[in-house]
Amino acid sequence: MTRPFRFGVVAPVLTDVRTWREQARRVAGAGYSTLLVPDVPQWQPAPAPTLALAAADTALRVGTWVYAAPLRPAWSTAWEAHSMTALTEGRFEMGIGTGRPGIEDELADLGLPVTPPRERLDTVRETVQRLRELDGPDARTPVVMAVRGPRARALAAEVADTVTFATLPSDSRADLEQMARDLRAERDVELALHVSVVGDEVAPFMASARDTDPAAMRAADSLAILPSDPAAAVEELRRRREEAGFSYVVVGAGSAEVLAPVVATLAGS
Hints:
The chain is α/β, with parallel strands linked by helices and 269 residues long. It has one domain (6-266): Alpha-Beta Barrel (TIM Barrel), CATH 3.20.20. The chain contains ten helices and twelve strands. The strands form two sheets. The chain has an eight-stranded parallel barrel, surrounded by seven helices. It has a three-stranded mixed β-sheet with strand order 10-9-11. The two termini are 13 Å apart.
């Protein structure tokens, strides 16, 4: 199944609120489908009120990219996600994963249990189960899972609507395409691609990530980078969908304007 392209923007609140709201409106005007925020307490206000503000200001879909499951009880995340679905009239997507690199230190700093990856994955499963119970027969909150290892990919094939791979920027095209093929052999889910670099522009919230070097990423033929030239980016994204099934493209807010011509060409096609 070939899914139509859609595009999302990860836009943490790194400015004053008025400027951020204006940014959200520009994202909507450029044809992006979804505004996303990370789950990082040090960067911004909590995801739910932040996204509720964006949903009230625009017709965008909104979502988390992604909830770190060990930061809160499963029932709490599920309740928040279901509430967002109700308040946005079905425009919320719950992105969830077991936690970004360094989550163990963050949990320790917050006085929360530092659980092993298997238990964090159990929390993801429980969160989705509770969300489905809260949604009931009349609603369905789309679940986006960020995965890496085989257990996470297996759970995503079972419960997720959309899957993105928590890769290293140095992962090659072959690495990611193989993960995509393996997952789609289990179930035909929507595949999302997080593009952290466009041309030489690194998303600000990715700037400290190890190996986020545009030259090295191009050398590795990484799928986490796109050319800044719109025509080349259009050709490359069509290739990625044809060869591996990636149809949902997520970029940092700093690249939204550069890729606007790409969105205008491909969104919905």
